[in-house]
Write a structure and sequence with these properties.
Number of helices: 2
Shape: globular
CATH architecture of the largest domain: Beta Barrel
GO molecular function, one term: serine-type endopeptidase activity
Structural class: mainly beta
GO biological process, one term: proteolysis
Number of strands: 18
CATH topology of the largest domain: Thrombin, subunit H
Largest sheet: 7 strands, antiparallel
Oligomer: single chain
Order of helices and strands: EHEEEEEEEEEEEEEEEEEH
CATH class of the largest domain: Mainly Beta
Protein name: Anionic trypsin-2-like
CATH superfamily of the largest domain: Trypsin-like serine proteases
Keywords: Disulfide bond, Signal
Number of domains: 2
Length: about 250
């Protein structure tokens, strides 16, 4: 299940785990999203169909996702409404719209569909009315890895059904990628109970029926080792709306 990894160690109950398969049977990874949830979710795939990242359809033409999901040298296709399925490919312009904040670029980008779609989308938040605060419970979803080995290391895998999980916001801060000069305003969540994986990056963080965040830092290769970071959409809402208005 999606990168939303809950690990129950039955060792704490005096039971012995003897094989890797036994351990994996004791994993609870989020939950299957119900058929009415996340119709706006976008799945980005590498040929011949392996999961790369997630995204959110925020209008009839625009997808919001993480900038680090883009790679000019690797083909990528967008699947709209993969959940509950079957989903369909949507062509998009190969010119991502990156946000700029002075000399640094936040880890958010917009992709424009070549044609408008009737697929349901989720609105951007009313940030003047409400912004994310510590204590808020947000929901994420994705198709990222959901299994760990005996050392609690995440194993590459992909669930058949989109996975959902809730997180409680702990704090807000600036998140830095030192190597490529990317700085993003984020809110962080604890991963003690659930843990996103790299394949969940770019997916939307939903709160109050709007997209308030983008998954940009999906945890460590070891499950539950670090807090996850979600880009704060409200911090960039003006830039996002400006891009959408200029390219119609």
């Amino acid at each position: 299940m999606a990168a939303l990894t809950n690990v129950l160690f039955l060792l704490s109950f005096g039971l012995t785990v003897t094989t890797e398969v036994d351990l994996q049977k004791r994993i609870i990874a989020g939950r299957d999203c119900n058929d009415q949830e996340r119709p706006y979710h976008v799945k980005f795939e590498h040929p011949p169909g392996s999961n790369r990242c997630g995204g959110s359809l925020i209008s009839d033409r625009w997808i919001l996702t993480a900038a680090h999901c883009w790679n000019d040298s690797i083909p990528m296709k967008a699947i709209l409404s993969p959940h509950p399925g079957p989903g369909h490919e949507a062509l998009f312009f190969r010119s991502p719209r990156f946000l700029n904040e002075g000399s640094r670029r936040p880890d958010i980008m917009l992709l424009e569909l070549e044609q408008t779609t009737t697929t349901p989308f989720i609105p951007l938040p009313d940030c003047e009315k409400r912004r994310i605060q510590p204590g808020d419970v947000v929901q994420i979803a994705g198709y990222g890895s959901n299994q760990v080995d005996r050392d609690n290391k995440k194993i590459p895998s992909e669930p058949q059904v989109l996975q959902c999980a809730d997180f409680t916001v702990e704090n807000r801060e600036t998140f830095m990628y030192i190597t490529n000069n990317i700085a993003t305003e984020v809110f962080r969540v604890n991963t003690d109970q659930a843990d996103p994986s790299p394949g969940d990056s770019g997916g939307g963080v939903e709160f109050d029926n709007a997209i308030y965040g983008v998954i940009i830092e999906a945890g460590h290769t070891t499950a539950h080792a670090t807090k996850a970071a979600f880009a704060d959409v409200c911090h960039y809402i003006d830039s996002i709306k400006q891009i959408m208005a200029l390219h119609v």
